[in-house]
Design brief:
The protein contains 5 helices and no strands. The chain has 193 residues and is mainly alpha-helical. The chain has a single domain, classed as Four Helix Bundle (Hemerythrin (Met), subunit A) (Up-down Bundle).
């Protein structure tokens, strides 16, 4: 009984302190949420880097002089791996973004709120690149399905052009995400968050 009342007292004391010093508690909550979002983003990093690497392999796929069967197997493998990475990265981005949105809307979050807004911009750009990646994988998969029936390379011209267009859009989106991340990281360091 004494232990339980001690826990209740501790919780009541913490609530009283937070009510008396709301900015400090808001800053502490904001810091905690930002740290959790950064952990999510760090967990997403290997998947993001793998997707970028897989996209390079798509470029190499068309340039290779291997046989048709090898190209189909390699292409199918790329699609499967990229989709697996996308499945893993999406919930991490969503979780980080939700935490950062909470910080952004938190009264008294101060510099953490500003940083959260900058980090959300980065995640939005990364999500855009992931949407383009999905389109890229759909197009690659469709192309792979028609290759056996195509009698000339010209028949695949549409897919080649579409893959090039999507690869350029992906690159542009990742560049935008990189630039947004640099700004957010610099703000984080400058404010010593």
């Amino acid at each position: 009984m004494g232990r339980r009342s001690g826990v209740v007292f501790t919780l009541a004391l913490a609530a009283t302190v937070c009510a008396a010093v709301p900015v400090g508690c808001a800053q502490s909550q904001a810091r905690s949420q930002v740290q959790k979002s950064l952990a999510d983003l760090e967990s997403a990093r290997p998947y993001y880097q793998d997707i970028i690497s897989l996209n390079q392999k798509i470029s190499d796929l068309g340039a290779g002089s291997g046989n048709l069967q090898d190209m189909l197997l390699t292409g199918t493998s790329i699609v499967q791996l990229a989709r697996s990475d996308l499945e893993k990265i999406t919930p991490l981005y969503d979780s980080a973004q939700a935490r950062l949105q909470e910080v952004r809307n938190m009264p008294g979050a101060g510099d953490y709120g500003t940083y959260a807004g900058m980090a959300i911009t980065t995640i939005d750009a990364q999500k855009k690149s992931m949407d383009i990646e999905r389109q890229l994988m759909d197009t690659l998969e469709e192309m792979l399905s028609v290759i056996p029936d195509a009698s000339t390379k010209e028949q695949l011209g549409y897919y080649s052009g579409e893959l090039e267009r999507l690869a350029a859009a992906f690159s542009e989106a990742t560049d935008a995400a990189t630039q947004a991340a640099k700004l957010a990281d610099q703000y984080f360091r400058d404010k010593r968050l």
